[in-house]
Amino acid sequence: MSSASHSRCNSKTQPRAEALVGWVLESPGRGTLTLIITCLFTISLCTWVVIHSRVYKRPLLRRLHKLFLFLKAIIAPEFIAVEGLQEWTQAQRMVRNGARLTGGHLRLVHAFYIGMLALRYRTPRGWRVIWPNQYTWLLEQGLIDWKDHALWGLAKEDIRDKSNADDAVKLVALCQVSWFVAQSIMRTAHALPLSQLESMALSYVPLFAATYFFWWLKPKDVLMPSIVDLPNMLPEQKTTFESMAVSSTFDDEGTGQQDSLWTVISLTPRVFEKDAELKAAQEAEQDSRQGDNSKGDVSKSHGNPPVNLKAKEIVIAWWDPELYQSKIWPVTCLFGASFGALHLISWHTVFPTVVELWLWRAAGLISVFSLLIFMQFEKVILRWGVV
Fold first, then answer.
1. Each residue of 69-78: pLDDT tens digit?
2. What is the residue-wise DSSP string for 85-136?
């Protein structure tokens, strides 16, 4: 075949960067079907590897929770990354608080294991979660000794044995992502176009990499919790211990709220939320003592704001104060906005219509700026029914 005819064949089979490309068969090189399968496989594999669900004793709730996390990671990977950062911050705090009490033997893997609701204690009606602050309190009070941590299911070997992380899947995910990113970089370096689906797949990579970094030591897919018996306590100690529980939603004592399927979409409550609640109650109690203690000031005497009793609210986001006030928070905001920003790689990509082009651009810009604004508030509450 002559060089002229060869160049004509290449001009027909290789799409130009400024041309609109439709469905391409597999034989000329990069086919549409291969492109779709590659991108979807990369996104799905990375998502499945990165999610680390909390512990449920009921198999149905465990599967539904993992499915919800999978969908959440697909739709809003930036929130999964921030959630991983907050859990890592809580685990680091628990390690610091327990360093003196355990001789430095309490590590991140133990803190993650307790924080994912994997440690429970028996009650006459079932069992309850032992939260990180409760475990630290038991150590402080001398009610338990770190030397007996293996009896509580906290030996590193036992935790690793319960974790179902698959090293082969991790290796496949690493190779797939590395190959996909390298291919995209080479196409950009040679002035070859990237499809919209490729730019979307690339947007997941930095967020999933950050999430996996934060959850590197977190056990994965633990099927059964460690259930223990609490040590003997005085009535005052028992009352204090139970009052430190962050939430009762994830206990198993047969209540309707605990059996609800809605628990699978709930965020795992964090210790700082309980600390903030106790601090607000103490401040309100001090203010009530110093202020007017008349009978009409019912809401203030109970430490609650004067809000209509019919008001309902949902906490959409609540950032850890230690993280929110740290120097890395601005970087966290920018990193969270990277998902929408990387979609803008396709700013000059050819779309079927101008409307679709500007819808893509607008969606990317809205994703970037809305998240930057959203993350400027320490706590975001949706409240309705207030007069």
1. 999 999 989 8
2. HHHHHHHHHHHHHHHHHHTT---HHHHHHHHTT-EEEEETTEEEE--HHHHH
